[in-house]
Amino acid sequence: MSLLLEAERYVANQSSHLALNAFITHSGRWLGQAKDADLRRKQGKTKSRLDGRLIAFKDNICTRDLPTTCASKSLEAFRSPFNATVVQQLEDAGAIIAGKTNLDEFGMGSHSVHSRFGPVKNARCSDDLSHLSAGGSSGGSAVAVATDQCYLAIGTDTGGSVRLPAAYTGTVGFKPSYGRLSRWGVVAYANSLDTVGILAKETSTVRDAFAVLNQHDPRDPTSLSPPSRSRIASKLELPQLSSRLESAPLRIGIPLEYNVSELAPSVRRAWYRSLEYLRRQGHTIHPVSLPMTKSALSAYYVLAPAEASSNLAKYDGVRYGTHPEGPNSEDESESYLYARTRGEGFGPEVKRRIMLGAFSLSAQAIDNYFIQAQRIRRLVRHDFDAVFRAEHPLTSNASRIEESTTKAGVDVLICPTAPSPPPSISDLMNASAAISPLDAYVSDVFTVPASLAGLPAISVPVSGKGNVEHHADNDLAGIQVVGQYGDDDLVLNVGELLEGCAI
C-alpha cells in the first residue's frame, strides 16, 4: 500500500471515530507530505522507517503548527512558537503529524475523563454497551492507535499514563528509562517522573520510534548525556549479559507483592498464560520480593502533586494562563486576581492535586509527607536493584561491577499492568457511583513502582482466553515487562516475544 493511501485510510478513520473523542485537534497538512514521502520511497531515499507515517501527539507536547491545550481552559489560547524536541525529531525522520490527542488535564488522571474537551471513550464496550475508560492520561493517544486513526502515537508517562491506556485499549505502550527521550517542549507535570512514551499496535513499531527519539538533547537538563549513554551500553553489554534472549534463557522474575487478592480473574489468567508461554520458550521463572512497592503508590501521590503544585504556579493569568472574564475592580488585589485565574482555569482534579502538593510541601507537613515519600522512593529503587541480575549502570560504586555479573538475579520482571479491566466512564463520572477519586488512583498501583525508580517498562496485550481478535472481549489484559535502568532494548525484546502469547 502506498503511503498516501495509508494516510487516507487513517484520516477516514479519524472522521468515522469522532465520537470516541480521541483527538482535540486534527492536522490538515498531511496530503502533500504523504505524496512527498511516496516519491522518496520510489526513489529509494526514505528518511527512516517512519517516513510518511501519520503520528499523533498528546496535547501536552508542544507543536508549532497546532495549538497545545493540555486539555485545560487555562491554555485554550496558547500556541507554541516551537516544536518539542520529540516532535522535531520525528518530523525530521519524515513522520507526518496527524493531530493532537485528548488527555486528562495537564496529564493528571488515570482515565482521560478530566478533560475540558470531554472524556475519551474506549472502542471496547462493556456487556451493557456502555463505553469503558480508555485509561489515562494518554487515553486519546491509545484510542487513536487502537482504532487505526494513526500509525503510532506519542504520549507521556508519569506514573503509568502510557502503560495503563495501552492495557485498557489492547495496544502496546512503552515507557523508556527516565532521561532516554527528551522532555524539552513537554509541558511539565512532575519533573522527576515525567517520561515521553510510545504507543503502537506492535512492539516493532515502538522500536522504530524509539530508535529515532533515543538521543541526547542538550536543551533538556534531565536528558542522559553521551558519557552516561556510553556507560549504560558498556555495563549492559558485559559478556554474561550480552547474550540474553538470543542464545541463553532469561531469568524471569515474578513480584510476589503484585499477586494481590483484588486481581481480576481475567488479569490473573493472562498473567499465568504469559509466564507459561515464556517457560515453554525455555526461560526460567523465579519468584522475587519487592517489599517497598506496597508503599510506592502512596509515595507517588505525595511526590507528583508536590511537583505539580510548583510547576503550575506560573499559570497565574499574568505569565501564563487565561485571564478571568469580567471587569476587574479598582481595588482588586494581585492575590485575588491570581485566585480567580486559577479557580476558573483549572478543573477539579488539577485543583485537588495542587492542594495536595501545596499541603505536603508546607512547613508543617514536609517532614512527615514529602521527605518520607522521597525516602520510600529510594527504597523502591533499592528493591529493584536487589532483584535484577544487571547492576544499575549509573551507580558510582565501581567495586560492584564484577559482582553484578555473577549474582543470582533476574533479567526482567513480568506482572500485570492494571489490576482489573477498565471501568465504565459512567461510573467514573457519576458522583453517586462507588468509584471515588481514591479508587481511580489505585489503577496505577502496578505501574507507579517502575516510574519511581525510572525503569523501562512496556505493556503488551495478552488474552486470558488465548484470543485477541475480538477487542471488545473484556478478557484482554495488559501484561507489563519491567527491566533494569537502561535495559530498554531487552524490555522491548521480551515485549515482542510476549506478542506470540497474545494469539
From TrEMBL:
Allows the formation of correctly charged Gln-tRNA(Gln) through the transamidation of misacylated Glu-tRNA(Gln) in the mitochondria. The reaction takes place in the presence of glutamine and ATP through an activated gamma-phospho-Glu-tRNA(Gln). Its EC number is 6.3.5.7. InterPro entries: Amidase, Amidase_CS, Amidase_dom, AS_sf, GatA. It catalyses: L-glutamyl-tRNA(Gln) + L-glutamine + ATP + H2O = L-glutaminyl-tRNA(Gln) + L-glutamate + ADP + phosphate + H(+). Residues 17-492 form the Amidase domain. Keywords: ATP-binding, Ligase, Mitochondrion, Nucleotide-binding, Protein biosynthesis. Belongs to the amidase family. GatA subfamily. The lineage of its organism: Eukaryota, Fungi, Dikarya, Ascomycota, Pezizomycotina. Subunit of the heterotrimeric GatCAB amidotransferase (AdT) complex, composed of A, B and C subunits. Its main location: mitochondrion. PANTHER family: GLUTAMYL-TRNA(GLN) AMIDOTRANSFERASE SUBUNIT A, MITOCHONDRIAL, TRANSAMIDASE. The active site is at residues 58, 137, 161. PROSITE patterns: AMIDASES. This is Glutamyl-tRNA(Gln) amidotransferase subunit A, mitochondrial. It is found in: Mitochondrion. It comes from the Eukaryota.
